[in-house]
């Protein structure tokens, strides 16, 4: 739940600025929106218990791959976001970009935690 709220915050903070003038922020927007949509999609699958109706899919592996890729790409996006924030670019967007950078790192840490727990779940599933 925390990733959805903070991920939404990341991309709304950037979307409210002239991010399209700077390609680095376009990458951050792509990662934030892409993983926000996928996280909502997996939440719906979990809430409706659809995963129980499709036993052919190795859901623990899917969760591990999803969270691992989200962690890696969000980490890259957060670093790109943080390194692109300067007062010289556009001073009235500075606060939004700085806040989006902070929240991108928070979302990255959330996905890192989820990756860890997904790995523990996957590992216990493969040992059985």
Largest sheet: none
The H/E string reads HHHH
Could you give the distance between the termini? 29 Å
Unreliable spans: none
The count of β-strands is: 0
Beta-strand fraction estimate: under 5%
Subcellular location: Membrane
Domain MARVEL: 1-123
Keywords: Membrane, Transmembrane, Transmembrane helix
GO molecular function: structural constituent of myelin sheath
Structural commentary:
It is a single chain. With 128 residues, this protein is mainly α. It has one domain. The chain is built from four helices and no strands. The chain has helices at 2-15, 23-47, 59-84, 94-127. Helix 1 (2-15) runs antiparallel to helix 2 (23-47), helix 2 runs antiparallel to helix 3 and helix 3 (59-84) packs antiparallel against helix 4 (94-127). The chain is elongated. The two termini are 29 Å apart. The relative contact order is 0.18.
Give the helix/strand layout:
Elements: H1 2-15, H2 23-47, H3 59-84, H4 94-127
Helix pairs in contact: 1-2, 1-4, 2-3, 3-4
Key attributes of the depicted protein:
128 residues, mainly alpha, MARVEL-CKLF_proteins, MARVEL domain-containing protein
Short description:
With 128 residues, this protein is an all-alpha fold.
């Amino acid at each position: 739940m925390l990733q959805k709220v903070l991920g939404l915050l990341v991309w709304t903070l950037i979307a409210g600025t002239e991010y399209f003038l700077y390609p680095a922020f376009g990458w951050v927007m792509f990662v934030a929106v892409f993983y926000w949509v996928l996280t909502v999609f997996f939440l719906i699958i979990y809430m409706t218990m659809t995963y129980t109706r499709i036993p052919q899919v190795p859901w623990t592996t899917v969760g591990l791959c999803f969270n691992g890729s989200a962690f890696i790409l969000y980490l890259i996006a957060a670093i790109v976001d943080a390194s692109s924030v300067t007062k010289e670019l556009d001073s009235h967007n500075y606060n939004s970009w700085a806040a989006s950078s902070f929240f991108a790192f928070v979302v990255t840490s959330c996905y890192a935690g989820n990756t860890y727990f997904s790995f523990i779940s996957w590992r216990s599933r493969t040992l059985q």
